[in-house]
Write a structure and sequence with these properties.
With 380 residues, the chain is an alpha+beta fold. Helix content is 49%, strand content 14%. The protein has 15 helices and ten strands. Helix 7 packs antiparallel against helix 8. The protein starts with 15 loop residues before the first helix and ends with a helix.
Amino acid sequence: MRYAYYSPRKQPCFDATLLSRLTVLSHLSCIMTTVCSIMTFMKDRRSHALPHLDIRDVLQRNPDDLIKYVDFQNVDMSHNSIDVAQQRIELTSFQDVAQAVEHISPDDGFGIIAHELEHRSKPHFHDYVEVTHVLKGSVMLWIEGRTEIVRAGGTIAIQPGAKHLISPVGGDADSVPIEIDMLVSETIINRMRALAPHSHDEAFHQWASSLSDIPYIAIGPDKNPSLESAINRLIVEYGSSEHSLHYAVVGNLLECVHYLSQTLDERAHADPLIASIQQIIDRDIAHISIESIAHQLGYSVGYLSRYSKSHSGKTLGTLINETRLNEAATALTQSELTIAEITRLVGFTSPSYFHKIFQKRFSLTPKQYRNAFLKTGLGT
């Protein structure tokens, strides 16, 4: 005879100490969530204490100032007020900006301006270093024939004299980017050099003096947390000091310059094998392959692929595609070739794949990209 034994389920027994710890952890989690929410709110409001460029206010005071400050050409103004169709690439000097924007002193040689970037700029150049940091959304910059997409948290520093324009990425009101521009003139750069004459940041000073052939320094989101932290502190200090150049502002600016200089140093000491890979790609982008690169350099595909990833952070395929996309972007604005012809010219066999990765890289389709630059006068 079989007997069925019933055994009641054992009830869980909670240790009092463990329960207490769990309660504390729960409370800490709630506190951290609240702190994160507050930090996010504060981060979104960083630009509120900064000077803003109000185009319509400038127009009312002096229409000529709007011509000098060539940013933001499409502001729904009458062509009788200002010739926004004029496409000369003009100088925007630090003095012009100081005249157009209240609170920026020409004597300081430094200022920070916040922009809600609703419109594309005209092509222009500066006599100062412009460091653009994106707080929200994404912006597209054309700089000396190359295109960069800068997303929230990203930073790009533009060399004096480099021709460029900036445009928002996205078409609805909710996606209007917010970016801040740090204007660093020769005056403040010379003062910083006097403060730290024996610093290791000479690379930045040489670059800012236009003694380098690098027109800009681009640093993506999360690529340099120290720089982003220094920029955030600089924004807060500048806003809370009523836009004056006190020691805390200068200190944070020096820190930003230090990290930008480090980036320039790293680029100057680029890995020679990665440089060789890039040269091979540049010579024949239409027909180049991973196998042919490995063969020309005398390495196995596996070794070279691992080396590329560990020393550049990019796979060989990514290096090839980025080069092809940059060439395609140039052809879209500098030639009358069709998009299909450009696709084949730079080495893509699949039009759909080309469209997909082009849009991923530039946040615009090839057609949208071409149309955007035709409207600026930079296209053919």
